[in-house]
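User: Fold this; tokens only.

Assistant: Input:
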Amino acid sequence: MFNIEYLDVKEKSEYESIISKVLDKCFEVEHLPKDKLLVSVTLTNPENIKNINNEYRKIDKSTDVLSFPMFEKEEIEKMVKLQNWEYTDILGDMVISIEQVENQAKDFGHSFERELSYMVVHSFYHLMGYDHIKEEDKEKMRPKEEYVLNELGITRK
């Protein structure tokens, strides 16, 4: 279902516990088989995420999370509808800046768990083909994110 890599960030079981809980709920809500789709999660620092962002998106700045989906939204919807899971596929890659998660949790006045959970669910829905650039797309993506977090009892407080 997922694997976690640490790139210049200290390993912590807390990170793995949060990521596992959130991805489990995302897979459940979206009716995805945990044994047939893999999410790769890289936890890193601002310098590395800046380099990755520049290399793959030509944006020379740090960010909190990057998402690299392997499928188009329509392809995933078709797989879910047909439940056609003959072999294991990679849903996509997430890259999360742990330092940025810590800073944003402080800035927004909520827990580290809430902020990391949000980064994971946000990235997951990007892997599922959702976006938030246009308002009509945001209106589809944001409720899905909030639903997962609410189901887990992870609030902004």
